[in-house]
Amino acid sequence: MLDFLKVIVKDPDEIEFIWNNDKLIFHDYREKLNHFDWETLITKSTKKYKGTLFCRHESKIEILIRPGYLHNDNVHNAGKFSPDDCIGVLKNLLDSLGITSLEHYHIVNIEFGLNLIIPGYDKEIIHFVEYWKRTRFKNDDELAFSKKAYKEQSNGTANTYKIVKLYSKGLQHPDFCPKETIRFEIKSKQSKYINQLGVKTIRDLFALEPYKVMSKELKETSTDILFLDQSVSFEGLDGSESIKLKDFLNTYTWHQTINEGHRNTFAKRRASYNCLLDKAGKNIHKVFSNQVAFDLDNLITNEAEICANSTTKKMCAYSTYDILGISTLGISTHGKRTLGICTQEESKREDILTHNKDLDNSEIWKTAISEKQHMRNNNWVMAHLHELGVKTTRNDTLQRAVRTLISKDYSNPRPYFNAITRIVRLLSERYGIELSENQLMKLASKSRKQKGKKIIGWPAQLS
């Protein structure tokens, strides 16, 4: 999760203790004139230890740490880097140098984020990202397929309080991760923001709580990002809706909204844009934020597997680089197009990996993703129907009927029973699925119970 740390030490005794450590080796020495006083020479000496730089200035030492690189012996592998990994790396670094006075080691620069694969998107998703809140993303001159968003100060320079960045990790490090991998991260160079994460000194990073705050910050930030998805399908939209969606996909529309519209206009138009994306069948904002939340939850809890029992399949959460539950096979999945969660039966999953079959079958992963989303929403009806092969979009007739069935507060049981009968008939006529009213009732009751809704029993005369 942690990508970079800058630590400053100003205590004179601690500075001498670090600088005279025999394990540090010389790296660099530089001199330059002070821009404001041409008679003053500024010097900086740098030593290093296992890739970590120790830069000595006149009255301080800056320590530049890349925990991910340190974890992998200074080799970048773009893999998962959990809070436990980071805590272990930092403790080992400080212990090996004999550093114990941690109150003198203040964090003044931090970068954190995660690597993830967005189902259905490649590096082109970087082209689609346009705004973080009302701040526009700018192309990164130093890296292709990379953008960052930051507020500007009155003099036009970047406000370093919070910088949001998205870039193609798969393009940057193709030998170490699937090409679809992107990096989503937040950077700050201001203590006011860093302190809000619960981080003041390096000692604070030995506890799990700051990483939970970082996770929450990444999740919230992911919901504030606006994408203009040029790959969206216009099927399911009428003529006026298609015209409106095309207008929303125009960058000038949002530029005009910010510069000419009322402050609330941006939020209102974004809401309308999201409604049209939902109706079109693919909302990039929900796909992105859901994947960020899913990957972070797995990373923070350090869970290797999240399973739910099913009558026909074992549903297992999928992490970005490994198909979980079968790691004992020792099968590498680098470069494979694994885009969601594996919902195949255990024997089928083993057969797929053992014989290298179907790893590029996107239909497997799309169906799996839909099932996992329904499970998260406690929609056991749709999760079961997806197992049976029913393919739906978010706002089609079946999904709307099921959402109403499991979420509505019915004052009279009769409409509830009629809704069950209509869904059973719809499944039979449109999808060729024979599901009894009793089966549907049990699934709906399970969902309603977990959503805190009243459980309505099936009348004996209708059983």
Low-confidence stretches: 303-350, 352-369
Distance between the termini: 54 Å
Q: In terms of structural class, how would the helical and strand content be classed?
A: alpha+beta
Helical fraction: 25-40%
Estimated share of beta-strand residues: 15-25%
- Biggest sheet: strand arrangement: 2-3-4-5-1-6-12-11-10-9
Task: Estimate nothing, just give the exact number of structural domains.
Answer: 4
Would you give an account of this structure?
This protein has 17 helices and 15 strands. It has 463 residues and is α+β, with helices and mostly antiparallel strands. It has four domains: 221 residues, no CATH class; 49 residues; 74 residues, no CATH class; 85 residues, no CATH class. The strands form three sheets. It has a ten-stranded antiparallel sheet with strand order 2-3-4-5-1-6-12-11-10-9. A three-stranded antiparallel sheet has the order 8-7-13. It has a two-stranded antiparallel sheet with strand order 14-15. The protein is elongated and about 85 Å long. About 14% of the residues have low confidence.
Tell me briefly what this model is.
The chain has 17 helices and 15 strands. The chain has 463 residues and is an alpha+beta fold. It folds into four domains: 2-222, no CATH class; 233-281; 303-376, no CATH class; 379-463, no CATH class.
